[in-house]
Amino acid sequence: MISALKPKIAPYSLFDRLALAEHDGTSFRGLVLEIPSAAAVEISGIGGCDLVVIEDTHADASRQRIDEMVRAAYSHSLCALVASEADPWTVMTRLDTGAQGVVLKGIRSVQHAIAAIEGAFFPPHGHREANKPLRFQFMSMTEFVEWTARNVFVCIAVDSEKVLGNVEDLAALETVHGLLALPGLMGCPSWSSAELSRVASAAAIHGKRAFLPSSFAPEQQHSIVKMAGSDRALLIDAYQSTAQYLRATQE
Which SUPFAM superfamilies match (predicted)? Predict the structure, then answer.
């Protein structure tokens, strides 16, 4: 009886959801989560987001907390990427949460990116150790290795002049699927419109996705994932708006 209840359908991937949105002609919206809480993920899902990027720079989240946030994402049919320092071990442990992919921060060169990405894939494509997140336990290890090779999404944070200078070469890597440039978030500088356009162009030329502010509208619309900022910033804005409203009504 227990075996009959085991799931038979592999978890969806970010590739699946992006392709579906493109097929349906619908927008795909994302949000950076700086508040390490499963409730923040749930609110994102209720609010109509399609993707969350879990970022713990401002509040160091434990492995257990990230696990809980990824599970909450699945429960609301959200895709979840997890920010990661650019070393293979950290990349591997981030993906062990069951997240659909990672956003690599602090890349110093193309070779550094290649070395870090090896932590995302199993041999012969990388050096990830044999382990399966709970959500994938119904798969054999061979099936999970094949699923990972097809579906793990690797995104590079354009968080320095070095990364921007190499953005075309990084986008050309087969194991890189996206570029993220969000001024003031994820460690990104305050990129100009021209610099954001360069990121968008590099992604479009190589058939990759660019994760850019929703306010930015370049020509390569089909390759853009619109990001609404961060939950922390939205919460601050909401508090300020509420305070202004209360002060106005009390005058």
Answer: Phosphoenolpyruvate/pyruvate domain (SSF51621)
d(CA 92, CA 77): 23
Counting the structural domains of the chain, the total is 1
Q: How far apart are CA 220 and CA 98, in angstroms?
A: 31
Q: Encode pLDDT of 16-29 as tens digits.
A: 999 998 888 888 89
Q: How far is CA 160 from the centre of its chain?
A: 18
Quick one: which of 157, 164, 165, 179 has its CA closest to 106?
A: 157
- C-alpha angle 113-128-72 in degrees, rounded to nearest 5: 90
CB of 30 within 8 A of CB of 9? no
CATH of the domain at 56: 3.20.20.60
Q: Give the closest residue to 224 by CA, choosing from 6, 18, 2.
A: 18
Whether residue 79 contacts residue 52, with contact meaning beta carbons closer than 8 Å, is answered with: yes
pLDDT digits (tens, 9 = 90+) for 108-123: 999 999 999 999 999 9
Comparison of pLDDT for 62 and 101, the residue scoring more: 101
**Residue 48 — left, alpha, or beta (φ > 0 → left; ψ -120 to 50 → alpha)?**
left
Contacts of 222 (CB under 8 A, 6+ apart): 22, 204
Query: Which tokens in the block code for residue 92?
Result: 């591997």
- Report the C-alpha gap between 221 and 203 in whole angstroms: 11
